[in-house]
Design goal:
Oligomer: single chain
Distance between the termini: 37 Å
Structural class: mainly alpha
Helix content: over 70%
Mean pLDDT: 87
Number of helices: 4
Radius of gyration: 30 Å
Length: 192
């Protein structure tokens, strides 16, 4: 079949039909690119950012526990509310347990190095809780026992704070890197 033998109406109709097919293919490609972008940004928005904020919140709560221990010991030394000091230190031990429980889902969702670091932080929460319990028990033991327990608590808290700070920093960096990757992919696909 030669082109000259094809009726004019078919020749005129081929160009718009071809244009429609090409536009449909372009639209499908664009929709697929948008879907990939949406999935990537959804992962960042629904998991990375909340996990980062949760870790920062846990770190702040541990800092508050640390400060409360010293406030309670200062109150004890000043003779303020001595009957409730032991109970309040026990309450702080319960708060560390709640912090530990709040961190467990974060560790369960994490993978690779991030998971290992969060598992270490969970162990650090458990050890810090044990050192607070030790401190609570030393209240009745006198000044030397209490000072030794406080030194163990401070040492354990220092290690936990360093680990937690490192995890928060690396999680922030991963979140920023993930956002950067998704934005770069979005820019590339928009140019296409």
């Amino acid at each position: 079949v030669r082109l000259v033998d094809i009726p004019l109406i078919l020749k005129i109709g081929v160009a718009p039909a071809l244009a429609i097919v090409l536009m449909a293919a372009l639209a499908m490609g664009s929709m697929a690119a948008q879907d990939r972008q949406a999935r990537g940004l959804r992962e960042v928005a629904q998991q990375r950012f909340p996990d980062t904020l949760a870790l920062q919140n846990l770190s702040e709560r541990m800092t508050q526990v640390h400060g409360q221990v010293y406030l309670l010991l200062s109150n004890q030394a000043a003779g303020i509310g001595p009957e409730s000091i032991k109970r309040q230190i026990g309450d702080l031990s319960g708060e560390v347990s709640r912090i530990h429980d709040a961190a467990q889902p974060l560790a369960a969702r994490a993978t690779g190095d991030e998971r290992a670091a969060l598992e270490s932080v969970l162990a650090g929460f458990t050890q810090t809780q044990a050192s607070i319990e030790d401190l609570r028990q030393s209240i009745d033991g006198g000044g030397m026992a209490q000072q030794a327990s406080l030194a163990r608590f401070e040492d354990q808290y220092g290690r936990l704070d360093e680990m937690l700070g490192s995890v928060v920093e690396s999680t922030n960096a991963r979140t920023q890197a993930s956002v950067t990757v998704h934005l770069a992919a979005s820019d590339r696909e928009r140019l296409l």
